[in-house]
Amino acid sequence: MEHLQLDWNNLGFNYMKTDVRYISHWRNGKWHESYLTEDNHLHISEGSTALHYGQQCFEGMKAYRCKDGSINLFRPDQNAARMQHSCARLLMPMVSTAQFIDACKQVVKANERFLPPYGTGSSLYLRPFVIGVGDNIGLCSAPEFIFCVFCIPVGGLFKGRLKPSNFFISDYDRAAPNGTGAAKVGGNYAA
């Protein structure tokens, strides 16, 4: 395993391929085939509902090193609960809290060399997501799903860039509670 030569104090928020990611497939009514892989490409059907109807959701959370050297995840149970809410809203199978947290822990442990040292202000960002896949073009829920967790080392999101801003107030409501606005799904970010 090669030694990392990263400037831990000046990381941005950019994609970087790390060693492994966690994948689990949902077929025939259950999650199975969970594994870690070095392959950072997903192989999906061109008819996947994630591509055509936005049947996907994601989370973002951080793992960080503490002063005593231990590693902590920040509120993984809350991220799991929000993902479960998002999955339910989009007619996708839910990932249990236990599987969600276990997947995150496996990814952090397998990619520990990418975890910034304590005191740098940086962390290991985890991106769990669920996408609808499989051969489908009709307007219905996907026949299969993929749950994946990958990670990247990141600096502070607003580090050196947070400045006062002027805001405009409008009647526009991006996060309407009876639509998908209250769920964390990719389509909400287009607006």
Automatic annotation (TrEMBL):
Molecular function per GO: branched-chain-amino-acid transaminase activity
Any one Gene Ontology BP term: branched-chain amino acid metabolic process
Signal peptide as annotated in the record: none
Keywords: Aminotransferase, Pyridoxal phosphate, Transferase
Highest taxon of the lineage: Bacteria
Cofactor(s) for this UniProt protein: pyridoxal 5'-phosphate
Matches recorded under SUPFAM superfamilies: D-aminoacid aminotransferase-like PLP-dependent enzymes
InterPro entries, sorted: Aminotransferase-like, B_amino_transII, BCAT-like_C, BCAT-like_N
Family named by the database record: Belongs to the class-IV pyridoxal-phosphate-dependent aminotransferase family.
Protein name, as recorded: Branched chain amino acid aminotransferase
Organism the protein comes from: Pseudomonas cedrina
